[in-house]
Structures are given as structure tokens and as C-alpha cells.
């Protein structure tokens, strides 16, 4: 199918599922949930938040935006420099100066 995990397989032993399968199936299918799964969070959205634009992987940005409303903008306008101390890209400059 089109889903990354077969959430119906192995329901009697979800503790042996990979954490990514458990998280996906719980969130998308309501199966395999463990107590406080979302409370324990798939990603720590505090860790590295001061440099999220350059240091976080895309999956972490998407997850933290969806679950904690963090890193939702396309750019972090509070970062004063671009990659390697270079000036902002023109697209970042346009976006940040318009908000």
C-alpha cells in the first residue's frame, strides 16, 4: 500500500515495533499507541531551537511545527547570519522583511 507501515501486523507485540512505526501508527491509525507517546515526543523541540533553520533536519521541523507550533516559518528571521556566516539568501531576506 501507500503507507510506510502495516499497522495491523504485530498488534499483539507492539513493544517490539521500531519507535518510528509505533509513532506513525499511533498518530495516523490510532494503533500501537503506548501511554504518553506524544508526551514523550518523537523530537525534542527545545534542543537546538535557537538555530533550528540551519541545524534541524526537515522531519524534525515538520514534526515540531505540527505538534508544538515551533519552526513553522520557512525561515528563522532571528538568525542574523546565513550558512557559514554568509549574508541571508535573497529569498530569506524578502520573506523576513515582509513579515
Describe the overall structure.
- With 99 residues, this protein is mainly α.
- Helix content is 39%, strand content 0%.
- It has five helices and no strands.
- The chain has helices at 19-29, 37-40, 52-55, 58-68, 90-98.
- 12% of the residues are buried.
- The mean pLDDT is 82.
Number of helices: 5
SSE pattern, N- to C-terminal: HHHHH
User: What is the average per-residue confidence, as pLDDT, rounded to a whole number?
Assistant: 82
- The global form is elongated
Helix content: 25-40%
Instruction: Give the CA-CA distance, first to last residue.
Output: 41 Å
Task: Tell me the fraction of residues in β-strands, as a range.
Answer: under 5%
Structural class: mainly alpha
Uncertain parts: none
β-strand number: 0
Largest sheet: none
Rg for CA atoms: 18 Å
Quick rundown:
The chain has 99 residues and is an all-alpha fold. Helices cover 39% and strands 0% of the residues.
Structural descriptors:
5 helices, 99 residues
List the helices and strands and how they pair.
Elements: H1 19-29, H2 37-40, H3 52-55, H4 58-68, H5 90-98
